[in-house]
Structures are given as structure tokens and as C-alpha cells.
Amino acid sequence: MITRLPIPLLAAASLASAAALAADPASPPMPPAEMQQMMKSYTPELRQKAMALSPELKGTIQKLHAGHTRRAKETTLRQVMHEILADYQAVAAALATDNAEFASEAARRLANHRIPKGGLLPYFPLKQVNDADLGVLPTMNEVVEGSALKLADAADAGDLPKAASYLSDIMTGCVACHQKFRGTPGVSSNLLSPVRK
């Protein structure tokens, strides 16, 4: 059973991509050539921030990427998030209609979502591309994608109530991540707030 973590800890890692890594810690890191190709697409500022990350965190990010078999050619992170939401909704619909096979399939697809164009780093706010903010990616990954894989296993075993119990863990991780890295959609720091007296 997953221990519930405080929202800030959950949030700090949201977009990690390696449920498969949780199942296979020996997963090889992303080939250096692929990582170098991603780095070529970064702005100089992002490249500098990425190079300043600790070797341990760089290795973790490579392993998180390597845990996914699907790579986007042009798909952005926002589009990948839409795909993940569609898979989550498919899981919920499948569980509500006692369709264990579809629930398992959609949950595994969610856990193996595609890596967006350029990898994960370009989509984090530049000020959060550092060891402190990105260091909990494996924990967040386990909450979101690890729970999706546990859901799939429970559905494969025909235990739909247990499978359904993992839905809230997945959503808790998603929402916490969005609070940390995305902020509130539609809210702009460029608008003046009225002063109340």
C-alpha cells in the first residue's frame, strides 16, 4: 500500500516517467546519444541549468526516460498530459462497467505514456530545474505510474474494488504535481489585483 506523502513532496516530481523503472530498477539509462540530441534542442539557459544538475539526478532522469518505450516526435508535454487524462478517464469508465481488461490496458498505457519532444526538462519552469525541485521525481513517479501499474495488476487478477482503490492515488499525484509546477490554469501574474480596504 502506498504511504500518503505530503502534497509538496508529491508535487515536486510530477512529470516523471518511469513506472517501468520501479518494476525494473536495472533498466538501462537512456543512450547518451539520445540525451545529447535532446540537449541540442535546449535553449542556452536550459542547457546550462541541465548541466548544473548533480550526476545522480542526471542519471535518475535518464533512467526515468528509459523506463518508457514511446517517444514523441512533435508532441508537447501538455499534449502528453491530455493523453494521460484520456487514459485515466478510460480506466475509470472501465472500472465502472466491470471491464477489467480495458481497465488494465488503459492503466498500463498511462504508466507508459510517451516522453514529450525534448524530454521532460524543457517543460519545467527554468527556476525549478535544480536538484532540490526535481530530486523527488522517483517518488512522484511511484505515486502516479506505480499506482497505475498496481491498478492494472489488480484488474488482471479480477479484483476491481482493489483496482479502483488506486485511482485516488494516481489523481493525488497528478494534482500535487500541477500545483507545484503548473500553478493555477488561467491565473496570470500580469494582472493587477484590486486593493480592498
Mean pLDDT: 81
Structural class given helices, strands, pairing? mainly alpha
Principal-axis shape equals globular
The proportion of residues forming helix, as a percent range, comes to 55-70%
Through-space gap between termini: 49 Å
Biggest sheet character: none
Domain count: 1
Fraction in beta strands: under 5%
How large is the radius of gyration? 18 Å
Segments where pLDDT lies below 50 for 5+ residues?
1-30
Number of helical regions: 11
The counted number of beta strands is: 0
Would you list the SSEs in sequence order as H and E? HHHHHHHHHHH
InterPro entries: Cyt_c/b562, Cyt_c_II
Protein name: Cytochrome c
Signal peptide: 1-22
GO molecular function, one term: iron ion binding
What does this structure look like?
The radius of gyration is 18 Å and the shape is globular. Helix 6 (77-96) runs antiparallel to helix 7 (100-111) and helix 9 packs antiparallel against helix 11 (167-182). Residues 1-30 have low confidence and may be disordered. The chain has one domain (7-182). Helix content is 59%, strand content 0%. It has 197 residues and is mainly α. It starts with 6 loop residues before the first helix and ends in a 15-residue tail after the last helix. The protein has helices spanning 7-11, 19-23, 32-40, 44-51, 55-66, 77-96, 100-111, 131-134, 137-156, 160-165, 167-182. The longest helix has 20 residues, at 77-96. InterPro entries: Cyt_c/b562, Cyt_c_II. One of its GO terms (molecular function) is electron transfer activity. This is Cytochrome c.
